[in-house]
Write a structure and sequence with these properties.
By secondary structure, this protein is α+β, with helices and mostly antiparallel strands. About 35% of the residues lie in helices and about 25% in strands. It has helices spanning about 1-20, 45-60, 60-65, 80-85, 90, 95-110, 190-200, and strands at about 75-80, 115-125, 130-140, 155-165, 170-180.
Length: about 200
């Protein structure tokens, strides 16, 4: 009887062991839990523009919004003259909520295997006691999957005003200017155009 019990016990152990994974096998690596974004602390206004460029590339809404003042009373976007007239109702009440809505719509329209390309070419920087002014040319390439009414590129010039907030620089005022490419006043889409179109 005892011998029969031992045989049953060993058979039971063998069946359990056969159904289990090797306890000494190498475990699969878990995905990293750290934030993979390229955000840098904006200790200089130029880093703010670099953070914005990388936020576009990485389609990171949070990092894009962190480049802007989080105060509704401080942040101001001034569109180019054409869009100020063409989309007057939109830009008369433009605020941080609109800013976040357009950038979310833009980033979610980009396939996972594609990225946006934003380039800044600063040509003027002025420093004051409590603020910094940077004028820069910009260009945008947008690899979205929306209909042709949504521009896939933009070009223009921007004036950015920066102030310190909690020790770091943020954009408080942003003025946009369109690019005219010939004597017939042919206009390229500007950043204002992108904002207006992707808001709706």
């Amino acid at each position: 009887m005892r011998r029969l019990f031992c045989q049953i016990f060993w058979i039971f152990l063998i069946l359990i062991a056969a159904g289990c994974k090797n306890p000494f096998a190498t475990r699969e690596a878990e995905p990293p839990t750290t934030d993979q974004s390229s955000w840098r602390l904006p200790t200089d206004p130029a880093i703010v523009l670099e953070n914005m460029r990388l936020a576009f590339y990485e389609k990171n809404v949070e990092n894009y919004m962190k480049c802007l003042s989080d105060s509704q009373t401080l942040f101001r976007f001034i569109p180019d003259e054409y869009e100020a007239s063409n989309s007057a109702g939109t830009f008369e009440q433009w605020n941080l909520a609109y800013e976040q809505t357009y950038i979310k719509r833009l980033f979610t329209s980009i396939p996972a295997d594609s990225s946006n390309i934003l380039k800044f070419t600063p040509d003027q920087r002025l420093e004051f006691a409590d603020s910094v002014f940077i004028r820069t040319d910009y260009s945008l390439e947008l690899h979205h999957v929306l209909p042709a009414v949504y521009p896939r590129s933009a070009k223009g010039k921007a004036d950015f005003w920066f102030m310190r907030h909690s020790g770091y620089w943020v954009i408080t005022r942003w003025e946009d200017y369109e690019t005219i490419i010939d004597s017939a006043s042919t206009r390229l889409p500007s950043w204002s155009t992108i904002k207006a179109v992707f808001l709706n």
